[in-house]
Amino acid sequence: MMRAISLLLISLVFSSTVLANNKIVSAGATITEIIYALGAQQQLVGTDVTSSKWHNGTLPDVGYHRALTVEGLLSLTPDLLIASKEAGPDTTLQLLQQAGVNVRIVSSGNRVADLKQRINEIAQQTGRMEQASNLNDKVDALANQLQQQTPAKAQQQKAIFLLLREGSPASLAGKETPADAIINLMGATNPAAATISSYKPASAEALLAMAPDVILVSHRTLKALGSVEALLAAHPMLAATPAGQARRVFSIAGTSLIGELGISSLHEALRLNNRIYGN
Amino acid sequence: MLIVRYQTRHIFVPTGLLLLAAAIGSIFIGPLPISIQQAIKALLNQEVAPHVSLVMQQVRVPRMLLCLAIGAILALSGTVMQGLFRNPLADPGIIGVSGGAALGAALAIVIFAPLAEFYPLLLTLGTVPVFAFFGGSLVTFLVYQLGSNQHGTSVAIMLLAGVAISALAGAALGLLNYYADEQALRDLALWSMGSMAGATWPNIALAWATLTTLFVCFRQDANKLNAFLLGEPEARHMGIQVEVLKRRLILLCAAGVGISVSLCGMIGFVGLIIPHLGRMLVGPNHTLLLPLSALLGGLLLLIADTVSRVIVAPAELPVGIITALAGAPFFIALLFQQRGKI
After folding, report:
1. How far apart are CA A172 and CA A241, in angstroms?
2. What is the pLDDT of residues B225-269, one digit of tens each?
3. What whole-number distance in Å separates Cα of residue B98 and Cα of residue B101?
4. Rounded CA gap, B216 and B127, in Å?
5. d(CA B217, CA B210)
């Protein structure tokens, strides 16, 4: 009996070490974020180009997740490729599977439920179910806090996210973007979501007509221009909006905007919620 | 005559050897370290690790074969276009074939990508290559119609029409860029820089069949192309049916470029610089220039693709960037050397 139990114990320990010794390539910024949040980063042997933020270039970069290469990936000798729905091309994924790499596509979506689903799927692959339930509790706590701090519909502010780049027109975040999800989570409405999806160039008149109370830009944009005053001076049409007149221009960390809704997106939503509604 | 042959042999043999060396080198070089013994075993279908045989048999060898064929097709088409238009700047891009093919592919990417979720068959059947091919053929037909009247075909008008239609295709591409979502935008950008990653056996068969057809047809017309260098009226007075010849050659070039664009995206500069290089080596005689261009085109693309696979490994640089990076300075140096001669 003791022998059987000890055998069982040994096999259990062995199986969990097998799981923990995965060699994983992550193809998607949101996936890499979750792998780090689960503390499974030791299993990573490479990431796609959008994930470099988390490891500061210490891991090999397999390129853009839509243009993965068979040989490049195989040179990292991974057992497992965790990828977003957009990853490809399909021929590469098929050949990788033929070469014995386990290819897992995680579920997509910009809702909190989608994020929790992704966390569970990745935890299963990395053998981190315990850490996943802790992480999901944190996600729930954040989401609950955000919900409690969301004002009634009538008091909600109108917020837009603008991608400002030197020499090209401002791009507005519409529906189906992480930026739109953050705006909704922080208790504001995105007037652009009614008419556009993804990122679209915005005319000055359209921006004025939306009359946003809050304008969000990326950290990088604000840093490049120096201050909110400089930003409004560089983009006079923004100065004329209610947000510009009240100097309610805030910045979001770029990492929370790449890919799909992630954990840092929730933290950013809470931080902005506190800024905007002054909790 | 003896002297010419002697010189020719001294150019074709080293080029052929160089091509052979590059072809062998390209299948032994890659981001995955594979020893030469292992590589040879994998090629002979002997027992090796499954990922090694997969990389050798499904990645490196197919890509080498595709590079040779596509490089040769682009270079042959460029040579014929330059001969036909008697214009050293003519390449398949200039009569709008590439622009039309690009527009076709962009349409497929933007319109069909959202549908792919529901109809995965649409993409597996390769809508992008098919649309690229039809886009290229349609534009060539339009340009040809614009350049033709009852008296024949005007090369100058065809060139102008090509520029105009390319501009139109560019505008339509811009419009598609505006409506595309982020995914499709990145796909479009990557596609427009070319890639040899689509090297599957059916694609390779198609590329080699195209190359063989083009080479045989062009070789038969090589002497007529030589006569064309004297001028179109002169060629007509020598008894050549110039209208028939022009139509045949333009359609063949369009098919060649359309197929290569559809398989590998836009790969620039091969069709432009290889004919110049070839003429520097063997002179303007098309019976020699055409085979040499085919060899040099394959060589250039093969080297560029090997570099693209290795330089940013484990990722991959689009091959069009490398051909342009290597090709443009070379072309500028050529222009400097030949200032006043062209």
Report:
1. 15
2. 999 888 888 899 999 998 899 889 988 888 888 888 888 888 888
3. 5
4. 29
5. 11
Write down the domain spans for chain B. Answer: 2-337
In the predicted model, is pLDDT for residue B121 greater than 60? no
Q: What is the pLDDT of residues A84-94, one digit of tens each?
A: 988 888 888 99
Span B40-50, mean pLDDT? 88
B118 touches chain A (CB under 8 A): no
**pLDDT (tens digit, 9 = 90+) per residue, A145-171?**
999 999 998 899 999 999 887 767 788
Domain B2-337 has CATH 3.40.50.300: no
Q: Are B110 and B188 in contact (CB under 8 A)?
A: yes
Domains and CATH numbers, chain A: 2-145 (3.40.50.1980), 152-277 (3.40.50.1980)
Closest chain B residue by Cα to residue A79: B51
Nearest CA in chain B to A65: B315
Full DSSP string of B272-308: HHHHHHHHHHH-S-HHHHHHHHHHHHHHHHHHHHHHH
What ipTM score was computed for the predicted complex, to two decimals?
Answer: 0.77
Q: How far is B313 from chain A (nearest CA, A)?
A: 6
Average pLDDT of the residues of chain B: 84
